[in-house]
Specification:
histone binding, ARM-type_fold, mainly alpha, Cnd1_C, nucleus
């Protein structure tokens, strides 16, 4: 054996001698593979004798052991992967060899080469896992593929770039051992490089599927990092800082094995080391702050950063946790990305750390605790200038409120912070909610609504009225998510406390959403109505008890006292029932009850509870000896019972309902005029209507005899024609329902209905004839008596005529109701009478020859006149031939009538005609649209709603002047109409007719200015009066503002490509027309059109977002996730858009130049508007206009000169105004007023030289103009394109004195 070892040593010495003798000092040659293998096998023996023999042989050749370092270093640096790793292993083995001269073998150059070898090895594309090295057929992964691993690969055979995990781990193991022998405190660069290499190895190894090999590698790397933290390798604090700085990218990256290793190392090993080393502890304490500064801005990576920071902070000491919390508070006043991160950190700190409201000192006040400071900072960020931060702060505050509400102590602290305690706060939560629920950004509004939901239980009775109204408005928001959030917030408020204002707002906002386009909202609306209204009434009604005796000791009991007592018995229920029957709420309640009934979700106890409430109310009234004829049921009780009874008819007390109907009508209400009816009589009539509907619903359950008796009584009541108009329809429908349900078959039911309908029509016609004849006779008789008869006889005659007129009005209304339920009824005797009424007193000589009253009933009996038109319209709906003859008469009356009530009814009838006889009414649509400018708000609103419905259902088309006339509703005097118009244009038309705004935009400019120069407007057949009616002429500020509001509303509906096309159309059809002389600039209307065009081209709504927004609004984009395909498509669209914009500007600038010369030649006042518009265009499109200005230097100089001249004149006037105001202000100062020396001197100079004022103004103007023009055209003059977003330095936000930096 000894002979073999001697032979091996000799062979090795010979190889080394050959290699070392051929070395080049500047570029040493690496050892060959055989030499390295021999040297490795020699070192693997680990025999000190062999080492001493090697050293003696090297010494005999004049070499030392350190002479091996240059070729080994060269092999580690330049050799293939397997040779590099083998060289690294040999280098470390030499150092670890027993009795090896460590200090002579270790040097920074070789050590750095070793580290480079390790990095290069782990980057190798070929990889053989540790398990497969011994198998020739084993397979290995190559990032995404499988590569065969050859035999002997563990020794370096085969592929030169091969990476063997076993050899690599062996090198790392020996590196761990070497660190016990060497001290790197003298080599700080080597220490830093070592730390960075270890971290880089972990990151690169993550990409490889090493299996258990990664855990082994992570353990070795952990040992190395622990070694370098020892004091012999340098100052512990500095080393810890280097290690943490290197680990930061691993922690901030996504979930991976490397990130998990870094977190374990910091939380376990470094925190543990910090307990014995102040330097390490300081590094760990500062590490979360460093991570916060390096945290990425995108949502998901930022979330990983927050998670990592919180994990580290949780293992820190309590004092250090408080210090970090205070640092986070300061972060919320810094740059936008730090403010956003701080908002996220505050939420997690408050939820994860213990006792946030307990200070570090026992005597610490609540305001001094870090939790209170964090809450204050979070509330301040709810008013941040960035919408993304506002939304995130509101959302986090909502989560925090829900979390703190679970604990009584924390809930009290939360009340203090939000402004409902003894501690004074700068901004209360109600102030924030008022603003943020109406924020311009959708995500902010949604977050504010979620916050309202969470704070409802805490706010209690302190609910702000403005916030409540805002929640109601949010229920009609265009976005589905915001509507859902508003419904949830308002319902939570209703569920928590039954305040009257909350109940009213909920009923006016939520039930109407039963007609929402989103089915999920409809379902939610039904569920909430069932829970909050019907179930609540059911519980209250079932718990109520009958009074045994009077509850009042005073004999003088008033109705209000009894109502108050019943209200106390059913808390909140009386308000709920009363508001349900409100005219704005009742239609939606009907729809909800119908939907719930069809789905069989109405519960039997609902009907029983309502009946119980009515019985208890009547009992209270009777027990206090009040006259029963003046009793009325609680408002809304009969209404709601009438709706649910259709689906719960078997559960109702039908005999009680019939008995209620038989109760006589108070005689004092029989023939009383409508205006004279008091509230109790109106409520009584309304209750009878709902009672009749209830009876109709339960009529199937009535026995034959009571049903027949009831039908007979109903018919008698109708024949008297003395009921309130609201009762007539209910009586007729109830009678028809009784006939249909009690008849044996449909034919018998139809014959019964026709029989009593004809009977009623016959009697009604006789009353009408009597009324018309009586009116004519009285008029003729009065004409022959001069002087007139006595006053007493005249009063009797007037009373009789009034009674007859009241019956006639009811009869006419009843005719209309009868025709609706029985269209086949014979109206041949009715039509002439109605014709006589509606044409009475007509100025037409042909009509004056017809029999009938010569004095118009329009003046003597306006109610009869209006009802006659309404009834004639109902008859026309049943008779098409009659409609053809009378529709022109309806249109004529609509145009000339001076009665708003009649115009309103006529508009409704014309809308019904449009549905039934579309072709007949189509030619009159333009005349109907004139009602959009009616002096009565009700008529305008009714017209707008009806036409909008017809347009949505395609009975009317958006063509001609219809769309242009609708535009004026956007600036209507009525706020309700403006809101309806905004919803129509912003939501319905944007989806149904997206091109409508684009196609009609230019024509709208001419129409609104009443200018007929446009081709599309020239052919309009509208009269001059109509054109003036639907225009907003004038150059005054109010007219221009109204027109601009309409233009902006239309631009908001356009897609980006339509905005570009509109820009081009404005230039081609208005600016080019003006420069060519087709648009007369001498005409005031032409000037208004041109000025409007300039304002539109300069407004921000017509400009396409260039994507140059800063990262401050990054939170806005977090609601949406865009995949790679979508982003590629967006980039492609952006490139196309830029190309179109460039071509557009190239065609636009020459038009502006030509028009500028024309306006200057005519000394037109529009030159200023043109220059202002041109300045904004040059500012916004400087990249696209660059080539034009560079190619034509003369044009560039002219534009710069003209713009500077224009800015100078503007600045002069502004500066002169400022100086003049300063002089005026100083003239009011007393002679003894205190002045500064500079101010006194300037004023004295101004008084001595009268021209100083103009000089100051001129100087100020020149400076301002030069600065503005330079800011706009700086890039253009240099020929430099706008730099990309990444190269633009982000502005730093400085905190204000009140620590509200970034707040708006």
């Amino acid at each position: 054996m000894e002979e073999e070892e001697e032979t091996t040593v000799c062979a090795l010495i010979t190889d080394l001698e050959e290699t070392l003798n051929t070395q080049n000092q500047s570029h040493p040659l690496p050892f060959t593979l055989p030499t390295l293998r021999n040297l490795q096998s020699f070192l693997d023996s680990n025999d000190p004798k062999i080492l001493s023999q090697l050293l003696s042989n090297l010494s005999s050749k004049s070499f030392s052991l350190s002479s091996l370092l240059p070729p080994l270093t060269s092999a580690m640096d330049s050799a293939p992967t397997h040779l590099s790793l083998l060289s690294s292993k040999i280098y470390l083995s030499l150092i670890l060899f027993p009795n090896s001269p460590v200090f002579s073998l270790f040097n920074p150059i070789s050590f750095l080469a070793l580290l480079r070898s390790l990095r290069r090895a782990v980057k190798s594309p070929h990889y053989c896992p540790q398990e497969g090295n011994s198998s020739g057929g084993a397979k290995k992964r190559k990032r995404g593929g499988i590569v065969a691993c050859k035999k002997g690969s563990g020794d370096g055979d085969g592929d030169e770039g091969f990476f063997d995990a076993r050899v690599f781990l062996c090198v790392i193991e020996r590196l761990v051992c070497v660190l016990d022998l060497i001290h790197l405190n003298r080599f700080p660069d080597s220490l830093k490089s070592l730390v960075q290499t270890i971290v880089e190895i972990l990151v690169l190894a993550t990409d490889r599927e090493m299996g258990e090999g990664f855990e082994i590698l992570a353990g070795l790397c952990s040992k190395i990092l622990c070694q370098v933290l020892k004091s012999e390798h340098g100052e512990e604090g500095e080393t810890a800082a280097e290690v943490l700085k290197a680990l930061a990218p691993l922690i901030l990256m996504g979930k991976s094995q490397a990130r998990s290793f870094a977190m374990r190392f910091v939380k376990s090993l470094m925190v543990g080391a910090g307990k014995t080393s102040d330097g390490v502890k300081k590094g760990v304490v500062n590490f979360p702050r460093y991570l916060a500064q390096k945290a990425p801005e995108k949502a998901e990576p930022r979330g990983f950063a927050v998670e990592a920071i919180l994990e580290i902070v949780r293992v820190m000491d309590v004092e250090d946790q408080g210090g970090f919390a205070e640092y986070v508070v300061k972060m919320t006043q810094g740059k936008a990305n730090l403010r956003l991160l701080g908002v996220d950190l505050i939420l997690n700190l408050m939820m994860l750390l213990k006792d946030p409201f307990i200070g570090m000192d026992l005597d610490c006040k609540l305001q001094d605790s870090w939790g209170f400071k964090c809450m204050e900072a979070l509330i301040q960020r709810c008013s941040d200038s960035s919408s993304g931060i506002r939304a995130r702060a509101l959302s986090n505050l909502a989560q925090l409120a829900g979390f703190l509400s679970s604990d009584d102590k924390n809930r009290d602290v939360l009340k203090e912070v939000i402004g409902f305690g003894e501690v004074e706060v700068e901004v209360g939560v109600n102030d924030i909610l008022r603003k943020r629920c109406m924020d311009e950004k959708a995500n902010v509004r949604k977050a504010a609504l979620v916050l309202v939901t969470k704070l409802t239980a805490i706010l209690g009775g302190n609910f702000d009225g403005v916030v409540l109204k805002t929640l109601g408005m949010a229920c009609s928001d265009p976005l589905v998510s915001i509507r859902k959030a508003a419904i949830s917030a308002l319902s939570e408020a209703f569920r928590t406390f039954s305040d009257e204002s909350v109940i009213i707002e909920w009923l006016h906002s939520v039930p109407r959403l039963i007609t929402d386009n989103e089915s999920s909202i409809q379902e939610e609306c039904e569920n909430l109505f069932l829970e909050l209204v019907l179930d609540r009434i059911s519980r209250a009604g079932s718990e109520g008890t009958m009074p045994n005796q009077s509850t009042f000791s005073d004999s003088k009991v008033k109705a209000k006292d009894i109502e108050r007592e019943i209200g106390l018995l059913f808390p909140g229920i009386m308000v709920l029932l009363k508001e349900i029957c409100n005219g704005e709420v009742a239609p939606w309640v009907k729809k909800i009850c119908t939907s719930l009934g069809k789905k069989k979700r109405l519960k039997p106890k609902m009907a029983m509870a309502l009946q119980n409430i009515i019985k208890i109310s009547e009992s209270y009234w009777a027990s206090n000896s009040m006259p029963i004829e003046k009793w009325t049921a609680p408002p809304g009780a009969w209404f709601l019972l009438s709706e649910v009874s259709a689906y719960l008819s078997k559960l109702l007390d039908k005999y009680r309902a019939v008995g209620e109907l038989k109760s006589p009508c108070p005689k004092e209400y029989m023939h009383e005029d409508e205006d004279g009816i008091d509230s109790s009589s109106v409520a009584w009539a309304s209750d009878r209507v709902f009672l009749l509907q209830t009876i109709s619903n339960v009529s199937v359950e009535l026995p034959p005899e009571p049903a027949a008796e009831l039908a007979h009584n109903l018919l008698i009541r109708i024949e008297e024609f003395n009921m309130h108009s609201t009762e007539v329809t209910a009586h007729v429908k109830a009678l028809r329902t009784l006939c249909k349900r009690k008849a044996l078959d449909a034919n018998e039911a139809e014959s019964l209905v026709i029989k009593w309908v004809q009977q009623l029509l016959s009697k009604a016609s006789r009353i009408l004839e009597k009324c018309i004849e009586g009116d004519s006779k009285i008029n003729k008789r009065d004409a022959f008596f001069t002087p007139p008869r006595s006053a007493s006889r005249k009063r009797k005659r007037a009373a009789a005529l009034s009674r007859l007129l009241s019956e006639a009005v009811t009869a006419v209304y009843s005719i209309g109701v009868l025709v609706i339920i029985c269209p086949t009824a014979d109206t041949s005797t009715i039509i002439p009478l109605l014709h006589t009424i509606i044409t009475s007193g007509n100025s037409n000589p042909k009509l004056s020859k017809l029999p009938g009253p010569q004095v118009s009933l329009k003046q003597t009996a306006p109610s009869l006149y209006i009802q006659a038109w309404l009834t004639m319209g109902k008859i026309c709906l049943a008779d098409e031939e009659l409609a053809k003859r009378y529709i022109p008469l309806f249109v004529q009356e609509l145009e000339k009538s001076d009665c708003a009530a009649l115009r309103n009814n006529l508009v409704v009838m014309m809308a019904d005609f449009c549905i039934r006889y579309t072709a007949l009414v189509d030619c009159y649509i333009s005349k109907i649209t004139k009602c959009l400018r009616d002096p009565c708000e009700l008529v305008r609103r009714q017209t707008f709603i009806l036409l909008s419905r017809l347009l949505q259902r395609d009975y009317v088309k958006w063509r001609g002047v219809l769309f242009l006339r609708f535009l004026l509703s956007l600036v209507d005097e009525s706020e309700k109409i403006r809101q309806l118009a905004d919803f129509l244009f912003g939501n319905i038309l944007k989806v149904k007719a997206p091109l409508l705004a684009y196609n009609s935009f230019v024509e709208a400019i001419f129409v609104l200015n009443d200018c007929d120069a446009h081709n599309g407007h020239c052919g309009s057949k509208s009269s001059q009066t109509e054109n003036l009616l639907f225009s907003i002429r004038g150059n005054d500020e109010d007219s221009r503002a109204k027109r601009m509001h309409i233009y902006v509303s239309l631009l908001k509906q356009m897609a980006p490509e339509h905005l570009l096309a509109t820009f081009a159309k404005l230039c081609a059809e208005i600016l080019a027309a003006a420069s060519d002389g087709m648009l007369k600039l001498e005409d005031v209307r032409g000037q208004s059109v041109l000025q409007d065009a300039f304002q539109i081209l300069a407004c921000k709504e017509i400009r396409i977002p260039s994507g140059r927004g800063s990262h401050t609004d990054a939170g806005d984009e977090e609601e949406e996730s865009v995949d790679g395909g979508a982003s590629t498509a967006a980039a492609k669209r952006g490139a196309i858009t830029q190309a179109v914009k460039k071509g557009l500007i190239q065609n636009t600038i020459p038009i502006f130049i030509e028009l500028k010369r024309l306006l200057e030649s005519k000394n037109s006042p529009l030159t200023g508007s043109l220059m202002e518009c041109l300045r904004i265009i040059l500012k916004d499109y400087k990249n696209e206009i660059d080539e034009i200005l560079v190619a034509d230097k003369q044009l560039q100089k002219e534009l710069i000169y003209d713009m500077q001249k224009h800015e100078t004149s503007k600045a002069k006037s502004a500066a002169a105004g400022v100086v003049a105001s300063m002089q005026n202000h100083s003239s009011f100062l007393s002679p003894g007023a205190c002045k500064t020396a500079g101010g006194t001197k300037a004023q004295d100079n101004s008084n001595e030289n009268p021209q100083s004022e103009s000089r100051v103004a001129s100087a100020m103007a020149d400076a301002v103009a030069e600065a503005r023009v330079r800011s706009v055209l700086r890039e253009v003059n240099r020929g430099i394109a706008t730099p990309p977003l990444s190269s633009i330095s982000r502005p730093k936000l400085k905190p204000n004195q009140d620590s509200t930096g970034g707040s708006d």
